[in-house]
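Let us practice reading a record.
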Amino acid sequence: MLSIILQVATIIISIILVGLIMLQVRGGGLGSLLGGDLSGGISHTRRGLEKTLFQITVGLAIGFVAIAILAFSFVS
């Protein structure tokens, strides 16, 4: 029963993570993804909602890894 709960939690967290990551994409295009930054190398600091989304994403990613490890330990 616990393994089913962990599997469902893993699926839910992964879906939420995909959504949060998609919200953080700024439309830089494929060029910026491959290192073709057109902004001249100016660094960008996160503020407000963008910072909160980033922190939630990091927290969920850590939770995802922890649940995946727990699920693996219960299966084997």
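A brief commentary: The mean pLDDT is 81.
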